[in-house]
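Minutes, methods subgroup
Present: GH (chair), OT, SY

1. OT presented the first of two proteins processed in the latest run. Sequence and structure tokens recorded below as shown on screen.
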Amino acid sequence: MAHGDHPIEALAPRSRMYQGPFGRLFPDLPAWPPGAMTDAQADVRFSALARTMVERPGRTPVAIAQAAKDRDSFDGTLPAGYTYFGQFVDHDITFDPASSLVRANDPNGLLNFRTPRLDLDNLYGRGPVDQPYLFHRGRFVMGAIVNSRGKPIRVPGLGTAKDPVFFADLPRNPHGRAIIGDPRNDENVIVSQLQAAFLLAHNALVDRAVEAGANLGTAFERARRTLRWLYQWIVWHDYLRRICEPAVWENALRIGAPDATGRRPVTLGFKDLYAWKQQPFMPVEFSVAAYRFGHSMIRTEYRTNLARGIDAHVPIFASAAGADDLRGGGPVPLENAIEWDWFLPMETSAGEAGFPQRAHRIDTKVSNSLAALPDGNAPLPMRNLKRGWRFGLPSGSDVARALGVSPVAIDPDHDALWLYVLTEAQAMAGGRRLGTVGSTIVAATIAGLLKGDPGSWLTVDPAWTPDSDPLLRPRDNRDGRADNPEHPWTLASIIRIAGVPFSAGPFGTAAGLPGGE
């Protein structure tokens, strides 16, 4: 076998009896494309295919951010914040450097894998005993956004003189690197600010538990369980409900009425597709292909807050080093602090036209920022296509037929599973959500992970709901009640609990002060 030709096949054998960290949903399907191909030949083939996937060929991310016309022509209906929540979830359940937006594909990186559980280990790491530097008195250590003199910037109108509220940043070492459970969550400003919101939400829940009479040890455990379960609830009832075909989502996980003992039976609708024995594994059809639909949702540019300006659009990644963009890896300036009602549906989102900003459609195009990443390596579409080939993933059309679904029309030379999932979303749902094959792989995997996790709400207490949790309050879900009364606990609930600024007021006031103070 030539160097580079399927070097990690052993991590995902085709045997149905294999039970390890990675496995296959369709072990009997042949690999795509058929026939032998060297690594050099794959580079040529997938590079050409990747070039067809660029939204605006020849235009730089900075030029697109500055252009007034045709800026939103690729937008779908999903709020932009869910793009980065999807990345946050990915970093929680699998460690794969190639899923990063700014790192080169390294297939051998899959040797360093995450526990396939929705347990927020990207937040909690190995816990206070093994990583005590992440915590202080049961709470996460936090950083603050600072001005040019290194002084924390206080949020006007929030907190008191004795207990002020600062614009939050991740805790950082003297070199600006984030000190967090998963460094990948400092890859860009949006996901790093989401990480900060989750850290602050834990701290707020600890405070609520202490107010209710718990000691710090008990308060930490209660806060961690509540945050984990609320996060799992949001992943299933909010995020997946938005991105999956409704019939598939409803069938993938069903919680029945209480039995004689008061327990609620949990049924997996795709247990024959995603079948595991002692514990769940990570399907490569999910991690290497279907779940990478989020790469198509990334916009080239975003508006961040009023400190930068309501009409200022900044690239997520500019191609030039040192350019003004939203890449992470260092302290966050005030103008890049995320105003969350510009990214998520909240009561205050309706104050200005065009909010919340929308993710790009799920289709066969990726933003120019991903076509020329700042790390100087191959464009992300090529990395994804080549990685699927190295894993010997089947064609999307073969997967569709295996699921009993009529395949969508696709060029046989474009039938990589990842590209098929994007093509199907575009053909079946106009890019508003995933199609049947993509929805089935994603929903079956997440449902299986929840059911197989001994600490999830489904396993410990299927009757639990956020409304019944003593640490959660009615005001925490006020935005969701307005957006969807049947599923009111949404990602915006984390923002509410965290207490991070989300309305224009604090940002507008801060922007009007000298130096942003």
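2. SY then presented the second protein from the same run.
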Amino acid sequence: MKRLPRKNKINYPLILLLVLFHHGGFAEEEDQTTAPDSDQEYDVISVTASRVERRTQDVAGSIDVIDSERIENEKMFNIKDAIQGSPGVLINSKNSAYDSRLIIRGAGQKANYGVREIMVIRDGVPMTDPDSFSRFDFIDTQDIERIEITKGPGSLFGAGSAGGTIQIISKSVFDTDSNRVKLGVGQFGQSNLHGRLAGDINESNAFSLTASYRKSDNDWRDWNEFESKQLAFKHGYLLDNGATLESELSYHEADLQLPGSMDDSEFERYLDTGEQKDTTSSPWQHSGRYSTIWFFNSRYEQELGNLTLKPRIYANRWDHYHPVTGAINDNPGTDVIGTDLEIAYKHQLWGASTLVAGVTARRDDTQGAKKFTYADVETSPPPAWNPMGPETILHTNSDEAGELLEEEDATNTLYGFFIQETLQPNQRTSIDIGFRYDRNHFDIDNTAYGEYSWGASSYTFFADPEITNTDKTFNLFSPKLGLTYELNKLLNLYGVIAQSGQVPSESEIQSNVKLDAATARNLEVGVKGRAQAWSFDLALYRTTVSDEIVSVLNEDLTTEFQNAGETLKKGFELSGRYDLDRHFWLEGSFAYSDYSFTDFEELVRTGRTQTPVDRSGNQLPFIPRQQYGLGIGYSHPAGFKAVLRSNSWGSYYVDNANTEKYAGYDFVTNLLLSYQSGPHNISLNVENLFDKLYALEVKKSTSGDKTYSAASPRNAMLSYSYNF
């Protein structure tokens, strides 16, 4: 695996030993257990949709909360382990690492790598760049308390995120009951080490130290290794006036290999053998991302009567070595600094009301980013009709960088303002009225010395450098009107109208400077039920997206981005749980998605010309009409637990032309078996229990060529944790 030069290497085994053997000497805390509030005992609290604590039943919109019990039961190699099965949320991973491809109600569908159009937040701090690109290498998946998912436009956190928001809540520095050491080993070279140590320094100060190490060889497929190392220190300070100040400094190393895609014959061989070995037909065999990140954030919270202040500041610096299709990106460092200044004011306006308002600002600065050729490639001679032409690249042999193709400096700034008033005209009704306004500016200076020529499958160098400047600003207005009505103590109705803008990414703007920001307008109604033995959520929505940015796969397998005239997304989602008795429970989810182009002409490239072809009325590719999941669980007071969960994706079209469908997959099942005795817990997680072989994704180019990305065969991990 290609490695970046590392400075100040961290001794993770030593840190884990310190966590294991130095957990004594801290003052024992008093038991904080209290009787549950009768109004909340059947529900959980969310902060993501409205920035204030509310029961999910009272939120005007679709929201899923993945609680700590679910998270603790998963091996948590990947964020996918916790949120797969949520209706309307499509997520997969090529190597069970941080490379999740995430789609919420169709948003994010155009991203070939990473997460687009969805705001990812950790403890109120955005992990998403101003151009909507999110990376999960920032996230220590072993240090998560809960995950909140809001779907569709309307979140006050969501700066330019049409698809929704995912907030990851980490374990609090003041939580001294979650100390543990966790060890795990599994098939395909999987290993997982994690330690957490927290305690009180004195009456006012607390600290926590976490260290995690994850590794997987994934040797069922070539070029598919993953390794990450993460270390975080948190400090908590209780001020005399009752305010709290929580700060965190963390360091991350993440090395990820991304395997090449397969053609029809290679995919058939995978179905026969369960392995993807040797060179595939893809020329790009050595893609990956190798990054280091320093991350700091500090959050202050103080109540002054009816006014609550919540200022946040954050800063991070990340670098990466990122081989991709056609070139190798080498970013020596991006500096990020930002703030989120929030207030919440309880008052009487139309009944008991709450005003939430604030401003956000962020600047991402990259200097000296470079793009290189692949140095180590296998080529074929020039064609006979052009013997002096360039040699054609057949495939890469390594990810070694060659000659310089581009140099780039880029600055991305985001300024935003948000406000929302929540009114309660009576005990049963609450009304949310609010909006976000964001101004996003791109300033990109690029000097190109050459490029990869898709038509010739080779590199071409210019006689003189080509210098370009991209200077573009997007203004996004995202209003929301929501209403919740309590039918009785168990059932709530809600309705919401919301809009959100979506900016193109930096690379999309550079490839097509005429791109406009997309605008998503959502109309949604639903009902939520909460009782002691059961719960359910039902949502029906209609989202119109104008100027949606869609990806087009050309005959040479390159991706272009275009503004579709308009797309229409209609669907409904249902999820629920029923406790059969004190030990057994059932759970299930279903999503129906009817997403179509209402006005779209796709530019189809043939040779050197592009011809517009009308795709209006066609379904969006990759999005199945049906997605459903089933689960059954058993928990015994003696400490034994068993959970069986199964997920299915229906068929979907593989191209914008809707010429062919992929069948999807049925009942891919995961199993958990665990036993807990006092502080000891041992668990077995088996993914893809019945060893189904299928494709995570199938694409088809405008010339008819298909590519397949394989899903992992059955794999198991055995874990032991000691809690203290």
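Chair's summary of item 2: Residues 649 and 665 are 5 Å apart (CA to CA).
Next meeting: continue with the remaining queue.
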